[in-house]
Amino acid sequence: MKPVLCQFVRHWGLRLALVLSVAVGCWGAGFLWFLRLTSQEAQYPGMADGIVVLTGGADRVELALHLLSDGRADKLLISGIGGGADLSVLGRGSGVDTAALARRITLGRHANSTFGNAQETAAWVNDNQIRSLLVVTAYYHMPRALVELRHVLPDTTLLAEPVLLPGGTKRTLLSRLMAEEYSKYLIALTGVTAWLPVRDTPRHTGHAG
User: pLDDT digit string (tens) for 119-148?
Assistant: First the structure.
């Protein structure tokens, strides 16, 4: 390799290494901030006009049903629920009598992503003239969920109701989960998710009762 070419490669190689080091350092510092953010204790907000639960675990739906049953809000949207999911089964698993609450519960079967959850929630919020919303999802997912919801509901007050993971969750699994979620959170902050391929089905929501 000629001396000039060697010098060129060395020069740009060092610059690339520097850029990568700075990028990794920024990602690491941001990740530590993200861990601190998600470890904060819930504020346990009071009443709201509505509740939305972003499905992904039975414990999320259970908490949302209890919040509705306790009178923390008048309406509940279960966003991203599977097409064959039955409300009465969810109620039995949660220890909540859903028969009396069915008219206040909307089943959202549109969303297959957090972006889809936000779109589905925005339509429901606008249909029901909701100004304040309790958001129920896993604690590690909450920052990204709030970002996506704020993109489409800038005038709605969002109140976090995070759900913790079971105590026996393995540390290696939790570390990988948090790292993946932080990367997705950064993508959500940019608004790029609105331009990604759509994984959600055409909008369809309906009252459970």
Answer: 999 999 999 999 999 999 999 999 999 999
Q: For residues 48 and 34, what is the distance between their CA atoms, to the nearest angstrom?
A: 27
Residue 71: C-alpha distances to residues 39, 49, 50 (Å): 27, 10, 10
pLDDT of residue 77: 97
Q: What is the pLDDT of residues 19-76, one digit of tens each?
A: 777 666 676 677 776 777 676 555 666 899 999 999 987 799 999 999 999 999 999 9
Question: What size, in residues, is the chain?
Answer: 209
- Region of 89 on the Ramachandran plot (φ > 0 left; ψ -120 to 50 alpha; else beta): alpha
